[in-house]
Amino acid sequence: MRRVLVAVLVRKGGGMTTFDTEAGIVVRWAREAWERDGAYAIRRDVFCEEQGIFEHDDRDAIDDHAQLLVAVLHAPNAAPRVVGTVRIHRDANSATDLATNPASTWYGSRLAVSADFRRHGRIGATLIRLAVSSAHALGCTTFLAHVQAQNAPLFRRLHWRTIEEEILFGRAHHVMEADLAQYPPCAAPYEGFAIDQRRAA
């Protein structure tokens, strides 16, 4: 089984952020360079600076073909800002011809939320939702992630199950599988899902 890293730090650490009730967050597939740059910056903050898993940069060969997802904050009188990210990709061993063999395994990895937005509580869950739902629309039949053990309860609440436990990068992880029946296909991932901050703040 291919090993990829997922870390969910939605609620752990970070100071309290005051949210503008007129602001909104949209979770969507990244489509512009500044969104990708913002996503990579958050990943460096989480996986290099905070967790020390990687020394300088967490990017790898998977990024060459993975699809980045971003959570973008839109606030009055401010430029849009990436506050969360995840990536999805098909397993290298899955069939490459969707027309003749649509069955495929997908992975989610590098899930991270900016430290000052972890108290928001819905950003990570919405990133997971779009990750699985958009892959489902592309023929995904199995969606997996390697989840840090302390975050397994969050994934269980989101209809994932543990397949096995493992040590990865020196940390306890769960190999988890999403229940695709709980994630209807999303055929418009560049539009994505909006988060109502008035309900989430």
From TrEMBL:
PROSITE patterns the UniProt entry points to: GNAT
Keyword Transferase attributed: yes
Alphabetized UniProt keyword annotations: Transferase
Pfam (any one): FeeM
Keyword Hydrolase included in the entry's annotation: no
Residue ranges constituting the N-acetyltransferase domain according to the UniProt record: 25-189
Single GO term (MF): acyltransferase activity, transferring groups other than amino-acyl groups
SUPFAM superfamilies, per the entry: Acyl-CoA N-acyltransferases (Nat)
NCBIfam families on file: MSMEG_0567_GNAT (TIGR04045)
Protein name per UniProt: GNAT family N-acetyltransferase
